[in-house]
Amino acid sequence: LQISGYLNLLANTIDNFTHGLAVAASFLVSRKVGFLTTMAILLHEIPHEVGDFAILLRAGFDRWSAAKMQLSTALGGVLGACFAICAQSPKGAGETVAWILPFTSGGFLYIALVNVVPDLLEEKNPWNSLQQILLMCTGITVMVLLSLT
């Protein structure tokens, strides 16, 4: 098995840990914020997990082993949620959320910008760049609209 498969599993576990942090901290704020965060992460995770599964297959895992390993990385999300709940201050959720949500949000923004912006800058076809920018703006608009409801 190639080392890239194991590195992908480690990265996926860390990613799921931060997702668990974000979901638990969001529910500590309110049910609405919790459900919005959960929905956003689910929409992100579905294609992400399919891609990770393909990476594991390419790295030499058989289908059953790749599925089991992907499922085991989901435990990172459970651990992240447990950590967020256990880190809750006796003074209330406000102090816990004060550091968890900015931490996870900053991480998500960093990863998105590090992965997306260089690809946009390398794109030779202006129409493809415009489409990608419009789709990003559409995603931001959908998030804003969902937060207003």
From TrEMBL:
It is a multi-pass membrane protein. The chain crosses the membrane at residues 69-87, 99-117, 129-148. Signal peptide: none annotated. Keywords: Ion transport, Membrane, Transmembrane, Transmembrane helix, Transport, Zinc, Zinc transport. InterPro entries: ZIP (IPR003689). GO terms for molecular function: zinc ion transmembrane transporter activity. It catalyses: Zn(2+)(in) = Zn(2+)(out). GO terms for biological process: intracellular zinc ion homeostasis. It comes from the Eukaryota. This is Zinc transporter ZIP13. The gene is Slc39a13.
